[in-house]
Amino acid sequence: MKDQYDVVIIGGAVIGSSVAYFLSQNPDFNGSVLVVERDPSYATAGTSLSSSAIRTQFSNPINVKISQFGIEFIKNFGDTMQVAGEEKPELDFHEGGYLFLANTPEQVDILKENHEVQRACGADVVLWRRDELANAFPHLRVDDIELASYGRSNEGWFNNTGLMFGFKAKARELGVHYVKDEVVAISREGSQITGVSLKHGGEIKAGTVVNASGTRASLTARMAGLDIPVEPRKRTLFVFDCAQSPEGTAAVNHGRLPLMIDHTGVFCRPEGRFFLSGCPPVEDPVVDWDDFDPRYYEFEDYIWPALAERSEAFEAIKVVNQWAGHYDFNTLDHNLVVGRHPEVCNFIFANGFSGHGLQQSPATGRGVAELIIYGGYRTLDLSDVGYERVVENRPFLEKAVI
Fold first, then answer.
1. Residue 128 maps to which CATH number?
2. Do residues 324 and 338 share a domain?
3. Residue 160 · residue 15 · CB < 8 Å
4. How far apart are CA 54 and CA 227, in angstroms?
5. Cys-Cys with 181: which of 9, 57, 198, 236 at CB 3.0–4.6 Å?
6. Which secondary structure element, helix H or strand E, spans residue 81, and what is its range?
């Protein structure tokens, strides 16, 4: 490790490693990159504990387009990210699709409005009436459903840590340095960041600093005298076994079931021979950064009743595993914040993904790399999700948040 780098990235999970990869693979960049990661086991990283899925069914065009690039990247991951002398990394992308269910006029209107946005962006999404839904997924009880939105292709789930470690391995092959350490101070002279201090000693001079520190994004920003409205919010996931699994019964997509989001917010999807499920918390307080105790009651109180109501197949189910992870929750508008600070221009945010960081990591890494190399976006313009809206208290709302 040197004492000076052109770019220092704070946080080496999927966002930080994506930035590192897209910088190092760009022939127009010949600088040095250091990634500082406090826990390279990533045991409690949002990446490792996520539900590992990607969708195009969003309400904002920019989020649809971010996912479209992410899907393309995931599908070509093995060829793009192969490290010399190693086997191709495979992400086992299951193109099962997403299925949103609506049973109130308000929910129906949102699905219709979102659908117009998605179709305008070229997403392969259809709206189904009740009879069409029943024909496609005969295991569902649909008498209360007024409309459904189904992604026929380019949506599904994949290997979360495979994506993260793939980025990291390729970035290291391309010359990026990783260090196990923690940034405890950021040096700033006026409107310029000059470097970082590490917990285990050492001062590193930096040309640009990228905040990719997940739920700790606000702590990192404060070290630079800045702020970002990001805090840790707990989400518990449950894996359950099903006495009579409905997987294979669908009349579409070769019998495969999608990731279904019930009108209650409860969701589930196939996970091998099991199912993965979760729900929005009834109460959603900020939690301690080290609080990963699952909310066990959510399954009995919310998830099981909703699923049993939706399908006879889900009446006899049993939890076989559960864990809690954290969203890096953007309290302003639940959307990613990517871009330079308007005054401290060599400090770049890549934060506040609110549960979408894994699927949005490829486009985020590419965008941040373009900002550093070219001074602006060359491919997908991420200006709408820039930091300026935080300063102006101007929410950029996304309606389709799970």
1. 3.30.9.10
2. no
3. no
4. 29
5. 198
6. helix 77-81
Structural domains counted in the chain = 2
For residue 257, what are the domain limits?
98-154+232-330
- Does one domain contain both 243 and 190? no
Looking at the fold, whether 252 and 314 belong to one and the same domain comes out as: yes
pLDDT, tens only, 170-225: 999 999 999 999 999 999 999 999 999 999 988 999 999 999 999 999 999 999 99
Which three-class secondary structure state does DSSP give residue 33? strand
- Is residue 65 in a domain? yes
Rounded Cα gap, residues 285 and 303, in angstroms: 20
Could you tell me if residue 242 is inside a domain?
Answer: yes
**285 and 357 inside one domain:** no
CA-to-CA distance for 258 and 248, rounded, in angstroms?
11
Helices marked H in 128-262 — which ranges?
Answer: 130-136, 160-173, 217-223
For residues 368 and 252, membership in a common domain is answered with: no
Quick one: CA torsion of 158, 19, 56, 111, rounded to 10 degrees?
A: 120
329, 232 Cβ separation under 8 angstroms: yes
Which residue from 14, 69, 9 is spatially nearest to 349, judged by alpha carbons?
9
Q: Is the pLDDT of residue 11 over 80?
A: yes
Helix (H, G, I), strand (E, B) or coil at 287: coil
Q: Is 348 left (phi over 0), alpha (psi -120 to 50) or beta?
A: beta
Task: With beta carbons less than 8 A apart as the criterion, state whether 152 and 126 touch.
Answer: yes
State the Cα–Cα distance between residues 245 and 139, nearest whole angstrom.
10
